[in-house]
Amino acid sequence: MEKQQRIKELVSKLNEAARAYYQEDREIMSNREYDALYDELAALEKETGIVLAGSPTMQVGYEVLSELEKVPHDSPMLSLDKTKSREALRDWLGDRKGMLSWKMDGLTVVLTYRDGELQRAVTRGNGVIGEVITNNARVFKNLPAKIPFDGELVLRGEAVIRYSDFRRINESIENVEAKYKNPRNLCSGSVRQLNNEVTARRNVFFFAFSLVSAQGRELSNSVEENMLWLKSLGFEIVPYRMVDGETIVDAVAAFAEKITENDFPSDGLVLIYDDIAYGNSLGATAKFPRNSIAFKWADEEAETVLESIEWSPSRTGLINPIAIFSPVELEGTTVSRASLHNLSIMDSLELGVGDHIKVYKANMIIPQVSENLTKSGSYETPEHCPACGGRTEIRMENDVKSLYCPNPFCSAKKVKLFGHYVSRDAMNIDGLSEATLTKMIDKGFLSELYDLYELKQYQSEIVEMEGFGEKSCANLLDSIEASRNTTLPRFVYGLGILNIGAANAKLLCKHFGYSLSALMGASVEDMVEIEGIGEVIAASVRDYFDNEHNQQVIEKLLSYLTFEEMPAEAEGNQPLSGKTFVITGSVTHFKNRKELKERIEALGGKVTGSVSKNTDYLINNDNLSNSTKNKKAKELEIPILTEEEFLEMI
């Protein structure tokens, strides 16, 4: 009964992992862990003779859930049996000749050409039913639009995204909760887009690995010859080597040496009999064809000590934990860092600084922590964001626990931070939309806020940017120059301190005599004495100014800025101290209601948005109007002032 229960547990775990990986493009366990659990399940099924209907050993691929059209495959697309032993690979091949090629890590696609043009592209789907992605396939970077063959041609291959493009795209994506874990996840999302413009921007490549049929042409009995024919039609084929029993072990070693050089992702090798008739005569099991087999790299492990955990904030707010360990040699290189992805993984490993851990390289490339030998579970989650100093928060999303910085203007969220700093109520710099800021950040013009004041060195490049020219560039630089003379409240608001709006910035600056050094040195207790400033706001300010990086940014910014002298705080110069105003209707003596509001606040008064029993005056040039605020003021017997009456008052 224990073994039956274990089978049920394994089926549930593996199906949950497969659902997350294939349908939701997220990872809840490593490939290594999945393979180990899968092998355990297969062994238990063989031992007990019990195979559950939902077992992953009886299924292929994933269930299709997207809005794309679904179609059945002409014949089932089966998975491959696998081995990690080079000797087992040699024994499988026997005295036959075979083709050894990369097992590319992307999305398998079936293409159909008719009259020399692509007619249909379908994903592997669940092996029986796939998704139609024809429009997306037409924008694959290396796929021929036309081929010199008029009959119906059907072939299979792998759609992949290169590591270089993966890094570029991952850095530029703003509207995702977390970065893609690997190129395969990104490729899956790119190939299955409903809008193929997205696919085109992501540089998807296609590598053919199998010729299925060619109408009117007698196919060769050799896999290699058929592949070379596809190459002659313009298709890029998966790199391969022809092998036999004597050369296969050396060939595997040669592939292994090239892994770190490859720009495209792979998760092993594929070996297929070159003799097609012989391979087909072997038939297939319910899950695997017998004419081919996959080779998975046997991971080289090393034991080391976890020295520290680095917390890396991202543009999305997700703070990624990174394991820093004593350097070890893996697959010919020295490694000392590995991403831990999220808090759920850290909890499962029961990590703590000083633990003895085992590390390996997934697919011989990406360092991972495989096991914790001491399991202290003593790691501490940081309470403050390493980038902005704001309070962090733990979130559960899709059953995964992760650490986030909720500050929308965190310095790690560069575009939002710059956009806030240049906004009208902050430094008031015109000509820098979020789209423009994104381009400038991507080009390396902007990294920290103070880089705005050095943009002139990129003037020639800015002029050539889309939407710019000589005049618009000059206007931008003039606006930046004008912003160098500002007020302290605008500057403090522009820094993007969590929970600090324009009004709070004014309150703080005013209380500390418009002295930035006094504000930066103030304690939480000092700040909560200010009416309207509570402990949450005070803690946000203190956290921000305690952050060393923020201190360096402010120091550099101050070298470019001059602050206007603000009104003295003597009681005689604060005639509106303790008075609360509400403003409604149009104004004539001021540019707008905002300017009138600033005048009231400069004289010690307070402006709110609605009339209440705490309101002292309503300013409205039309005191006979039937507006809601007028009615409320009259009901509460609150004086209604015109602008002229207000000016006489002050």
Summarize the structure.
The chain is of the alpha+beta class. Strand 12 (302-313) and strand 13 form a beta hairpin.
Break the fold down into its secondary structure elements and pairings:
Elements: H1 2-23, H2 31-48, E1 70-72, E2 82-83, H3 86-93, E3 98-104, E4 107-114, E5 117-123, E6 129-131, H4 134-137, E7 153-161, H5 163-172, H6 183-191, H7 196-201, E8 204-214, H8 223-232, E9 240-243, H9 248-258, E10 266-273, H10 276-281, E11 292-295, E12 302-313, E13 318-330, E14 333-339, H11 343-349, E15 356-362, E16 366-372, E17 393-397, E18 400-404, H12 414-421, H13 434-442, H14 459-464, H15 470-482, E19 485-486, H16 488-494, H17 502-511, H18 516-520, H19 524-528, H20 535-546, H21 548-558, E20 562-563, E21 580-583, H22 593-602, E22 606-608, E23 617-619, H23 628-635, E24 640-641, H24 643-649
Parallel strand pairs: 2-11, 19-20, 21-22, 21-23, 23-24
Antiparallel strand pairs: 1-6, 3-9, 3-10, 4-5, 4-7, 7-8, 10-11, 12-13, 12-15, 13-14, 13-18, 15-16, 17-18
Helix pairs in contact: 1-2, 12-13, 16-17
